[in-house]
Amino acid sequence: MKAEKIIILALFVFLPLSGCRNNKEKSISTKTLQSGKIELTIHPESYDTIPEKVPLKIWNNTPDTIEFEAKYKIEKLAGNTWVPLEFSDEIAFIDILYILAPGQCKVYDIYLYPDIAEYQPGRYRVHKMIMENTGTTSHYAVFDITGK
User: Fold this and answer.
1) DSSP H/E element including 34
2) How many CB atoms lie within 10 A of CB 52?
3) More confident site: 19 or 38
């Protein structure tokens, strides 16, 4: 019984501390936080085949707390224009609000639904709306599909 309590306590202490940072990740400095930048990245940035999902990392490098919903769109670069994939408006999302404090990040699975969307080799991006103190703004992370 005592060992179970220790394990449960350890989970409550260490799980909230887990996140995006590890020895290979950048650390957030005060200077970065003052720059007011929200950073979205997908790693790896290039895929030989169409994956079922890609990992989207959202860094809050602003001095303020940011919020965003689970909803996203996938867009494809056609010439000089980003065009939303047709299925993007047909996906149902859970109604959840994520909150990131200054200096925090969240890794979020972006499902591409290759069984219902037609992907061709090219450049794509994930489009997320993020709420800040100054209003709601669009943010993007780019990735490439080089083959089928």
Assistant:
1) helix 30-34
2) 10
3) 38
